[in-house]
Amino acid sequence: MADISKRRAALNDRLKDLEARLLQIDEELDSHTTKDWEELAVEREEDEVLEGMGLSAQAEIRMIKAALHRMDEGEYGYCVECGDKISEERLDILPYTPFCAKCAAKHT
């Protein structure tokens, strides 16, 4: 397996980026002060996009934290469902995945 400390560092960096993005989204959502109805309608549409991005970031944060926990427990790199080793190629693409390719296919 690739150096776990490199994977941990990459996951922690991604976690920091996502948390910063969430702060920016929150600030943007709180910044609307216009009273014009047309502008409010446009802002509301933009808010829906921002909220979707925020939900996506929150989901990724949960997955990263779970992967970091698996690292702490010595379980990282093994499928949480079947226990098989997750391929390096899969971890390179999706470093926080809890599933091997076979089990992931069952969940889609």
Major sheet summary line = none
Shape: elongated
Beta content = under 5%
Order of helices and strands: HHHH
Tally of DSSP β-strands? 0
Q: Give the CA-CA distance, first to last residue.
A: 26 Å
Low-confidence stretches: none
Distinct helical segment count: 4
Q: Tell me roughly what share of residues is in helical segments.
A: 55-70%
Task: Supply the helix-strand structural class.
Answer: mainly alpha
Radius of gyration: 18 Å
Average the pLDDT over all residues and give the rounded result.
Answer: 90
What would your notes on this structure say?
This protein has 108 residues and is mostly helical. It has a domain at 4-78. Helix content is 69%, strand content 0%. The protein has helices spanning 4-30, 37-72, 88-93, 101-106. α1 runs antiparallel to α2 (37-72). The protein is elongated, with a radius of gyration of 18 Å. InterPro entries: DksA-like_N, Znf_DskA_TraR.
Q: What is the strand and helix layout of this fold?
A:
Layout lengths: L3 H27 L6 H36 L15 H6 L7 H6 L2
Pfam families: DksA-like_N, zf-dskA_traR
Keywords: Coiled coil, Metal-binding, Zinc, Zinc-finger
GO molecular function: zinc ion binding
Using brief descriptors, characterize the structure shown.
108 residues; mainly alpha; 69% helix
Question: What's the short version?
Answer:
The protein is mostly helical. The protein has a domain at 4-78. It has helices at 4-30, 37-72, 88-93, 101-106.
